[in-house]
Design goal:
Layout (H helix, E strand, L loop, with lengths): L6 H28 L4 H21 L18 H7 L2 H33 L4 H12 L6 H11 L6 H9 L18 H12 L1 H13 L3 H9 L4 H12 L1 H16 L3 H7 L10 H10 L6 H25 L5
Helix pairs in contact: 2-15, 4-8, 4-9, 4-12, 4-14, 5-9, 12-15, 14-15
Length: 322
Amino acid sequence: MAQAVAPGDSAQAARAVAAGRSAWLRVALDVVRTYPYLVPAIFFFAGWQLLPILDSLRLSFTDDKFLDQLPARFVGLQNYRDLLRDSLFWKGVLRAFVFTSIFVPGMILIPMVLAVLVDRVTNNRIATAYRLILLIPSMIPAPLIFVLWAWMYNNYIGPINYFLVDVLHFFDVNTQPQWINDRQLVFFSIAVMEWWWGLGYHTMFFLAGLATIPRDLFDAARVDGAGEWRMFWGITWYRLLPIILVLAVVRFGTAMAVIDEYLIMGGMNRTRNTYTWTVYMYETAFGGGFQFRGYAAAIGWLGALFMLVVVAGMFYVFRSRD
């Protein structure tokens, strides 16, 4: 037996259907109005990022030689098998990891301490001046940075050794530090350059993170008798863990993949510590001989896989405790 439907219920159902249609229409109009602006970015990302990545993956499974007239042959995993037994690759990965182990902790701790100090400044003009001064190195182009620090590290005309030898008399001409040529100092020297270059950029990250921490937490901690050191490790450190994670992941990747600094300051000398896996990849792909691009692509992918494994561990260590 059919039930009678009240006119009010029928009108309400019709209004619900109409509201649903209008909502879908608004979404469709928003997509039409906004997503076309993403087309250029998607185009350049696909053309300059995605396609080269996929093509390098394809090359890693071939014996492609750039200067060989014969067509590339598919060799499967042979490049990766050879690479696993390549001592030069693993030695290069170890060298890159040593540099990264020096660079990343300093890159996190030094800007963090500076951010805490700048955040304590109560005068807005002075705090702004500090921020601008810290950002100056980040505005200098990379080639100029490398030339500047190569001059500063120079044994004969560099100001660092001049200060240590002729002013402080800590060393003489024969015992002065060889900042670039010494195997024990080269990574530390490059790390100092990188710390100085990115100091302001990284400090701004931590200042933004400090601005999100409620001041009530510090006031309550002071009432309970906590000092600055206790508040830093008990409040500031844990509240900044998301910022630390972002910087650590990003800078771990850039430090492991450093190549320009090594090529400028160390060249392609395999006996130097600056001959890392990235320089090995570059020399294999663009150096003398046939230029084995297939093997070089395999070097890049295996190095990237190693970095992804470490990054996954960093996500676990620096996960938020909230």
